[in-house]
């Protein structure tokens, strides 16, 4: 295990540094992340490099036996750069970004890419072999704050080139999208507009899907570009980029991006800004497993909450013990390195309310002592298990094409969720809901990208919202079921192809035979609660209510809602197919219903489960030497887990013989 | 009766066509609407016409004994057009429209008008005498999606010309508007700005009123231009344009527009998009009567809901039988032709979730069989009555000048209703409320434009929200009352003249004598529920509460609300005037109160009424051979209408001897 | 006492004038305000002045023995001006202002300033010595409707100059703000952007604070410019500008602005537009005292509500007697001159729903008679006390730097309040809440700007939200406490310095010793109600909950909320310091709790208080000859004040011997 901190020596005086490092070490911190907003410090004028500042701090770190991860500073460029190239600025929904805040750069801009290559090359050459440097973070939270979509003229130009590369001829594009619709038949690629802000009807869904793909490709390419430089000049130092906190990232294909990096890191804020409550723990678990699952390997938390954070608004204050719990939660879910954000709280700037381990002064805080204690507590076990695979027989599977599709075509107002104007997280939240049912049953569950998973590693695959079908994935799923797997499908499965065309067959399209069911009718019920019954248990569902017509499937549950004409019609079916099983769930269930349903499926699949109430989580980890049962009390009160009494916010690790 | 479907052969292969037509015919469909989004297909490059595609399908239609209405394709132009003329694009509240969606065209643009003339002329010449073509739809839902307002520079230029034509001198404009207010005295027409987006205080109300008139004139002129061409080259084929679903259309003077067309058609969607419930049936009835009443003649539903529709969001799923009911509802309210939207559900494009008669495949759906049955059921009677006038002794009267005025000056937040940012439907919804009281009392009621109605055709005229007075209409109303009519007026009657100036007398201004009442004080109560009592019946009112001061009128109802200082003051009065009667209602009543009040008025006017509860509607129609009582059960449960038991969603037609 | 009216002769014919003046005089009105929107009338073309219109009316006024205050007309310029200088237009959040509405002018524009100098000079020369003119109002509601912030290019240019003047070198600016944060190190002043609309993260808080200061300086300078001209050409006529109704004005330093004027005037609308209820009376009292306190002298109400007002939306209708009460309320709180807005209701323009004393006709209204009566009633006493100081031993203190700071950094969503998009009034409303507790205890209380107050005039100083500390003010406060004063501080006191940097010590920073308390932890609870107990009284608090750590202070109240981990921790402390006392309140209390707490503090300070329920207000005034007890019944029902029975909306003035 590595414990580190995100450190900004440039925000303090050199006098502070030695003291800072001493206090860090006393706490158990041996590494820092540095420099990710340091472009203007390292290249104060075009081509005039000055690495002396970070040299000094790196030397001091090294002298103290500590290490550093360096961030490349491309998330915010210096003012002189935009003065020279005014069009390197992004634009979003009619608003141009600007210097003075961050993440302004247009990833399609050749000028910006050239400038990035120069600073990263210079930095890699200078620091690449410094003994303190143990790795690199490329950019910072790339794509965050809506910077994954760019409506600028430069972006439009690049989009047209991307389309030309993909479709070769404009006729092919017209036919593939179906531009005969509303008569928008283009005669050349330079007639294609940016699908941005609009007065009324939206742009063509196939166009928007491609626009998202274009941005994903562009951003991945930008990361690749930096990776090539770093691999050349900083041999042997592993590369990552810190994924931003919103969990499932609907534009950029993070699984694909990960393939150019050595390991995943992400920024874990269970509460941030004006949130009145932290996320429910199954949601945090889903985020951990999402990040773990991108490479199916141990991951780093590059920014682990250590205080109380927000820009101009704050909210929930973590209780004593809760920050420590969240840190351990990252580790037991698969992290092998934790960097706390941030070491000391900045006195100025937009983050002057982002409280870190220390406050604005240097007196040790309660948080300092709490985390110091936490590091000691977890270290006893962590080194035995953190490098091992997080074991699971169940996986929930997300899919980037569907994440993108549901973002622009949510169908139900219940699948629309925009806590900030630049994000539509309906898909993300719904995926977490399907994941949560397993989590509260204390079943170790992976959360994996459809494009990278090997289904046969699992007994049960949960694949909700898989409406846009990739043929190769479908074929693997078919094989998985034929060979005995249990596949759980959700509403709107198999409705459309990768071009965005609806199949000329009925939902679930290609899955119809294996699911033994057909869907001709559904209602988009938004956030209404529609009643149904699963065995003896009444429950409610929402968002989308499909009326299932079983062909070969057996009915597991039916609608019972008197207000709905489809009362009595099936909502859940199960079908045997070759050696396997397909469960089809035609609606979004409330959490308790998911749990009851999963219990039945787990029982049939002979996977053990427990339930200790809504605030206790249990996990199993396999170590090199021992196995571990881990009980987590997410509540501020004492809690029972079977016969065990857990203290508030306790993480209890019980080793077992292998 | 004609039954037709909106058909998009361009979205399917030629192979599909013969099968499509066969299935349509089996269902009872004999006509299609075609081509309204086909500009790019017919003129793929400037001046290069290619009508072969629609030729083929028209020939096939003709061969099958069917007919077609052709849409002129000006609602969406081809990409090459805007590439050549970038300024033919509308702008709304700071957002430029763009190619890639629809309704972008600036109706003031000479370039756009020229291009439209060319394509419509070519189309009219080519198809004008085709034996399958039975008529034309000009443009498509003209003015929908906020395209009735255009803030572009080209629009501004045309607005200045329109103002110059109207006012001749800038002094005249300054005086007529009252520009001395806030000292905005223009020296020339080219100083006049576009009254668009603004930071705080709005533009001058008289200016906004003219801006709306200008747009109405411009759009009507555009329709006239097309009509002239079509009448020249397609002799004898009747013309229409399909009015868009939002009911009372506050910008364009549709009654005036209708005078250049042969019949009214409109698009009837009782539920659309994310609506959780369909509109209440009196509201749908109001929409039907609005469209019927524009020409007081039978009308076509050019798009009759046949499925489950929306762009990226869906909502309420029509129950079995409900789609059939809605179709019959159109017919019994005065439609003599129904085109279902749409025949088959598009596999691609923004309407891939606009479910039509068939789904994305070709298997016959429940909706297919339901509508097929409905066509047979209604045909037995429809041919006898659909060409006859819908009989009524009562009319609710709307007025375009007031629709516009209330849109920009709603006075009460309760009269502000913007389900989409580009529409303010407070006036529309309030008019429908005043209509509904008669509808639930099962009294055949017209809904007519003030500019075209002959008041003496009616016993009772209901004229709510008639705040801006047209002198000639006032004189007709005065004659109507003098000769024995009953006139029902609402709050804020007679407050201002057509220039937008408040009268220098008190509300109801010119109506004071006939109403026998004066209003010096009112409160704008928003959506508060304020108590009052009409006879023995307590009720509530909202939006605006006027305190009536009767001069000669008798008091029918008083406020009773303890929270209001005007408790005890009159809210409703009645005045005899010559042979007639004027009822003045100083507030917006809740539906039950409207019903109780209307009952008294109907009784006094000796007009029979019934009441079978809130979900049963009864109408009377006169046929050539027989008369008809029509009972409609709008609910999904059995319902009583007197002694009759109506099945869910049943429309029962009972013929009677004449 | 002067009673006047805001009169717009340009909105009526000359025939009307004599009658208007006669009716005014009958009512008791002896003065008018004129011309503040008259630029286009006085300078219809550039350089062509025509003062004949206002000459005529001024002569008539003089002939009738009345007087006039003239407004300089710079709040709305004539169309020819912007035609000549298109860049004199403001811009806000991406929206350019425009001619056709008002307050469009960019105060930084040299062209606009030159044009303003010309018209004001011409006007001052022409009217400066007219015998009817008794004073000048500069501009109109300067800064209202969001015009205190300007994002135009001209504003940006001027901002850069202002920064250069302040910081001299760009290095100094970088260091003072802390631009090393996110690496935004500028190389020159012309790289600085406008901190306007942005996609995600906001601009640097120190930058925004300076941006607000820049606007304040610019607007004050504009007022100074006009004042110099008027003083030169209209000797002896006192100057004012009418402050707009929103109370505490977070951008412009109104106390500083006031120093260039002779007296304060403001516009008092206890209800306006779509408000459903008038402001609570302690809030109106806070507004009165805010305006009174800017110069600590009698003030004018330049626009006193006289009717029922709004632009396109209206709301609450004042009850009979309430308008009269509000007029008297202004006087007893310190006004010595009242101008009613407006004399007659305009028939046209954006204010045609701004009902004045008369309606659109000339018949005398109830309001006319009510105010006529009110003038008589108050005149009996007013002349004796209106020129005397409003006596008080308690002052609530606001601070312009903190008003600005909390506006852009509200910390808690409960301190964010934007009834209109261009204002964030969280600070204002919260200040009024702290004021209200004293007001309902019927303790005469001043409301004063920190920069101008002499603390030793008071026994108790209430200084909430004093987070950004001005050193000189801190020193005065320290002396005040040392010498025996009672200082009441609120949450987040002493967190940052004037550069916007957090202190490297803990809250309350420099106040820690005198408050005897330290704060390391707080929660931003938004609008949650968090329980606490003060003595035996349970109460709730909201917005921000600090956990106090007393060093020398005694604990007065503790949190009791079971949902909070800080249950049992202190929320209120009291500390003796030298001869004085410091009470520290770590949260925003509900009104009842404030009252209970203040009672204790008043008792200890030996200041008498009473409580007659939430709708009775009592004040004391000192006259030249007598003293007065003033009882105000703010409710529409009878009310008790001790043994006195007050009629609805009664203001009872009881003279007492001195």
TrEMBL record, chains A, B, C:
Substrate binds at residues 102, 140. Keywords: Glycosidase, Hydrolase, Metal-binding, Zinc. It catalyses: Hydrolysis of terminal non-reducing beta-D-galactose residues in beta-D-galactosides. The active site is at residues 141, 303. InterPro entries: Beta_galactosidase_Trimer, Class_I_gatase-like, GH, Glyco_hydro_42, Glyco_hydro_42_N. Residues 6-380 form the Glycoside hydrolase family 42 N-terminal domain. Pfam families: Glyco_hydro_42, Glyco_hydro_42M. It comes from the Bacteria. Its EC number is 3.2.1.23. Residues 392-607 form the Beta-galactosidase trimerisation domain. One of its GO terms (cellular component) is beta-galactosidase complex. Zn(2+) binds at residue 106. One of its GO terms (biological process) is carbohydrate metabolic process. Belongs to the glycosyl hydrolase 42 family. This is Beta-galactosidase. It comes from Leptospira tipperaryensis.
């Amino acid at each position: 295990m590595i414990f580190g901190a995100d450190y900004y020596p440039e925000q303090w005086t050199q006098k502070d540094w030695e003291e800072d490092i001493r206090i860090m070490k006393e706490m158990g911190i041996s590494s820092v992340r540095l420099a990710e907003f340091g472009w203007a410090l390292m290249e104060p004028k075009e081509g005039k490099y000055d690495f002396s500042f970070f040299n000094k701090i790196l030397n001091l770190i090294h002298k103290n036996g500590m290490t550093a991860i360096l961030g490349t500073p491309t998330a915010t460029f210096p003012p002189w750069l935009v003065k020279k190239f005014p069009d390197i600025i992004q634009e979003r929904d009619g608003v141009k970004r600007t210097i003075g805040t961050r993440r302004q750069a247009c990833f399609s801009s050749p000028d910006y890419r050239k400038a990035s290559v120069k600073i990263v090359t210079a930095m890699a050459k200078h620091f690449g072999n410094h003994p303190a440097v143990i790795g690199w973070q490329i950019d910072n939270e790339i794509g965050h704050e809506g910077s994954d979509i760019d409506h600028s003229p430069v972006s439009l130009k690049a989009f047209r080139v991307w389309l030309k590369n993909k479709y070769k001829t404009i006729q092919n594009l017209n036919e593939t999208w179906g531009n005969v619709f509303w008569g928008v038949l283009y005669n050349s690629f330079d007639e294609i507009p940016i699908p941005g802000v609009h007065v009324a009807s939206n742009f063509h869904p196939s166009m928007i899907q491609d626009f998202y793909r274009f941005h994903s490709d562009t951003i991945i390419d930008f990361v690749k570009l930096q990776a090539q430089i770093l691999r050349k000049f900083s041999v042997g130092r592993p590369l990552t980029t810190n994924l931003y906190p919103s969990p499932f990232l609907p534009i950029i294909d993070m699984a694909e991006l990960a393939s150019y990096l050595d390991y995943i890191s992400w920024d874990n804020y269970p509460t941030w800004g004006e949130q009145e409550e932290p996320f429910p723990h199954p949601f945090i678990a889903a985020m951990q497993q999402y990040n773990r699952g991108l490479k199916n390997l141990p991951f780093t938390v590059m920014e682990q909450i250590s205080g109380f954070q927000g820009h101009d608004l704050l909210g929930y204050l973590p209780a004593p013990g809760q920050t420590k719990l969240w840190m351990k939660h990252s580790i037991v879910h698969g992290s092998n390195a934790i960097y706390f954000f941030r070491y000391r709280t900045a006195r100025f700037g937009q983050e002057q309310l982002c409280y870190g381990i220390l406050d604005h002064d240097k007196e040790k805080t309660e948080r300092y002592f709490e985390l110091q204690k936490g590091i000691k507590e977890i270290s006893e076990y962590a080194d035995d298990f953190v490098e091992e695979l997080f074991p699971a027989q169940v996986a929930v599977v997300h899919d980037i094409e569907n994440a993108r599709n549901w973002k622009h075509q949510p169908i139900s107002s219940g699948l629309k969720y925009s806590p900030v104007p630049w994000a539509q997280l309906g898909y993300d939240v719904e995926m977490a809901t399907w994941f949560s049912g397993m989590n509260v049953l204390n079943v170790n569950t992976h959360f994996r990208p459809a494009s990278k998973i090997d289904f046969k590693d699992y007994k049960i695959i949960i694949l909700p919202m898989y409406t846009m079908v990739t043929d190769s994935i479908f074929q693997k799923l078919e094989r998985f079921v034929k060979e005995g797997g249990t596949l759980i499908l959700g509403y709107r499965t198999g409705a459309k192809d990768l071009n965005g065309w609806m199949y000329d067959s009925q939902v679930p399209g290609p899955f119809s035979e294996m699911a033994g069911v057909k869907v001709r009718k559904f209602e988009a019920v938004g956030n209404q609660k529609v009643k149904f019954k699963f065995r003896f248990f009444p429950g409610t569902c929402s968002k989308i209510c499909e009326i299932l017509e079983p062909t070969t499937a057996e009915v597991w549950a039916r609608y019972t809602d008197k207000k709905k004409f489809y009362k009595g019609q099936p909502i859940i079916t199960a079908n045997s197919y070759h050696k396997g099983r397909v469960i089809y769930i035609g609606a979004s269930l409330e959490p308790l219903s998911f749990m009851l349903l999963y219990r039945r499926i787990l029982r049939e699949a002979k996977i053990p489960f427990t339930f200790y109430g809504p605030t206790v989580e249990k996990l199993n980890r396999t170590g090199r030497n021992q196995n571990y049962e881990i009980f987590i009390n997410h509540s501020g009160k004492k809690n029972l887990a079977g016969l065990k009494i857990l203290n508030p916010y306790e993480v209890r690790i019980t080793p077992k013989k292998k």
